[in-house]
Amino acid sequence: MTTPMPAPPYAGPAGLRPRSPAALARATAVLLGLVVATDLFACSADLLQRDVAGDLADGGTGAGLIDRADRADTLFAAAGVAQGAALVATAVVALCWLWRIRVNAEVFDASRHRLRRGWTIGAWFCPVVDLWFPRRIVADSWDASTPWGVRSGHAPVNAWWTVWLADLFVGRFADRAYGRAETADELREAAGTMLCSDCLDVVAAALTFVVVTRLTRLQERKVLSGELPSYAVG
User: Fold this and answer.
1) What distance in Å separates the CA atoms of residue 1 and residue 15, rounded to the nearest whole number?
2) C-beta of residue 171 within 8 angstroms of C-beta of residue 201
3) 163 neighbors 207 (Cβ within 8 angstroms)
4) Residue (of 158, 81, 76, 154) closest to 112 by Cα position
5) How far apart (Å, rounded) are the C-alpha atoms in residues 88 and 85?
6) How many CB atoms lie within 10 A of CB 149?
């Protein structure tokens, strides 16, 4: 029994034209590198904070330990500011890239998309639906950008979204634990949780780079192949 061919691409709204996402992808990749750098800086601050808290919990005293504690607090605060700035800058550029990707994907095949185009940005800022709508938008764009008739897989998208959600929840738990910490033991545990969160953030950034790179390449190849609705190549 032969497997039936999928339905041919369904043209999107007239007037849309594919535009290369390569420049935005490169900018996103550079900023993701900055995110990784700030996360590694945060990891070193977490380690110092955990070590100092451990020494305090074990009864350590002295001017040297106080100096280390002050340095740990300063580095921890600086890491938080650096991470926040890098995250905001990366989010702005990455959303511009994702919008370009989503519009291109609608040109390639409008039938693949389960959500309206406006959700490309809005999904990230709406509670509850932000837990799965962004992943759906990327997966649909991935499917529309895959060569027609080729079975597309979502392994990179699924890996990225799984780690992103884990990072989100662990990060929130770490923030609450750090805010509630009153003793040296509690501070040591909170610093360890924060270290786990920052490590997850490094992995999430790396997987985001993979998704951005591969999806950009899929779209570039799609345009070069000439496999577009007739009005989009005129």
Assistant:
1) 40
2) yes
3) yes
4) 154
5) 5
6) 9
Tell me the C-alpha distance between 223 and 217, whole Å.
10
Q: Please write the tens of the pLDDT for every residue from 87-118.
A: 999 999 999 999 999 999 999 888 889 999 99
Is residue 151 helix, strand or coil? coil
Q: Are 84 and 90 in contact (CB under 8 A)?
A: no
The percent of residues in the chain predicted with pLDDT above 70, rounded, is 88
User: Does position 184 have pLDDT exceeding 90, yes or no?
Assistant: no
Rounded mean pLDDT, 189-217: 96
Q: Side chain identity at 193, as an amino acid letter?
A: T
Per-residue model confidence as pLDDT tens digits over 26-54: 999 999 999 999 999 999 999 999 988 88
Task: Say if CB 20 and CB 113 are below 8 A apart.
Answer: no
Cα-Cα end-to-end distance for the chain: 39
What are the residues whose beta carbons fall under 8 Å from the beta carbon of 14, sequence distance 6 or more? 231
Specify whether the CB–CB gap between 109 and 10 falls below 8 A. Answer: yes
Rounded Cα–Cα distance for residues 65 and 49 (Å) = 11
DSSP at 116: -
Alpha helix ranges (H) inside 18-128: 22-57, 63-108, 119-122
Provide the pLDDT for residue 153. Answer: 83
Q: Is 146 helix (H, G, I), strand (E, B) or coil?
A: coil
